[in-house]
Amino acid sequence: MSHLRNRRDFLKGVTVASVGFWVAGTARAQEKSRSANEQINFACIGIDGKGRSDTADAAKHGNIVAICDVDEQRLERAAQLYPKAKKFVDFRKLFDEMGKSIDAVTVSTPDHTHAAASALAMRLGKHCFTQKPLTRTIYEARRLGEIAREMKVATQMGNQGTASSGLRKAAALLRAGAVGTVKEVHVWTNRPIWPQGGTRPETAPVPSYLHWDLWLGPAPERPYGKGYHPFAWRGFWDFGTGALGDMGCHNINMAFMGLDLRDPIAVEAETSGHNKEMFPKWSIVRYTFPARNGRPALTLIWYDGGKKPPAELLDGQDPGLNGTLVIGEKGKLFSGGRDYKLLGGATELKVDFPESPGHFVEFVRAIKGGPPAMSNFPDYAGPLTETVLLGNLAIWAGRKIEWDAQGLRATNAPEVEPLIRPAYRKGYTL
Q1: Which value, to the nearest 10 degrees, does the dihedral of the CA atoms of residues 255, 258, 263, 269 take?
Q2: For residue 230, is the peptide bond before it cis, meaning its omega torsion is within 30 degrees of 0?
Q3: Separate counts of helices (H) and strands (E) for the chain
Q4: Residue range 294-306, pLDDT digits in tens
Q5: 41-63 pLDDT, tens per residue?
Q6: Predicted TM-score (pTM) of this structure
Q7: Angle between helices 382-397 and 242-251 (to 10 degrees)
Q8: Pair type for strands 323-328 and 182-188
């Protein structure tokens, strides 16, 4: 298998803006020719829920040779679709037995096992597609980017909107100054749509089809209870990343791309309150970004749990369930998802941006020696995830966090260290 081209080789064919993103050019690296017997062999870890579509995407572009899930009912359903794939309940055993037979993996598990599974795959030289958020904690996101670069593997995070022409054009408009100097960004979501703000469920018998110890993976040991598997784990600090982690890599994505929203220096949060077992029912998080690459300092405000920006800021626009509002000195850019509207005197400009062949196609193209996927781990997905997850430090602590991005350190809040660098249970490693 060919490996991911290094950044220098890729930049030979693409014009890059000063902020480090793709902004122009229609040049496309030619895919390396492959004979029929050189198809990509995929292993898919987590094969229901979002993993169902990720596995289906992989099947369109190669062979599914292994499937893995801790839920044997889900595993059997997937086996009906991919009868030639070998079945596993433990991704570590999958790599032990099939390491030489696979080229790439998809990781579509609960957030707390993303990093352990993805790191193991990349250490073995496997190309890696991992669902958003890339990881549960900030250090894990940084480390996956480092491993991907070290091992020269193709990578991509599953924030599919990154491939949207509407999102890419909106980002290009921000870079081109369509709204002028930006001072404030507002981002909101209707999440959580699962329980939050509660307590740990009562202990219950483990279902016969569920390998609970493997479900826990690197997380601290606890008894099974109804409400973790298969979906509501998102609301628990040990397993998920709350509303911000679930939707931040989607809803903050456009502003991150267009305004280079890396390395905030501070973050603070207002919430409904929580017991450090589950995330709060709602939160409002304020990020402070310093000036960067010619872009002045600005503030981003995140809203979830039904909270939204003041109606007067929206100029009559229906905020919908999810949205982004970028406020500049010359006007505003409003986005309800992958499209956008310019408001308040903002100017529609002619801008160049790279069209995507499709999100998963970008990953496959990179595996075959083409340019990196836009949302690759080292250059994009990792930094985006770091920015998003920083907000959870303030939600946890209930006070302002002063952030040293280079050192991955909350300079005034040592109590949030476990949310930066997690301790793994024996048997798992990063």
Answers
A1: -10
A2: yes
A3: 13, 17
A4: 999 999 999 999 9
A5: 999 999 999 999 999 999 999 99
A6: 0.92
A7: 150
A8: antiparallel
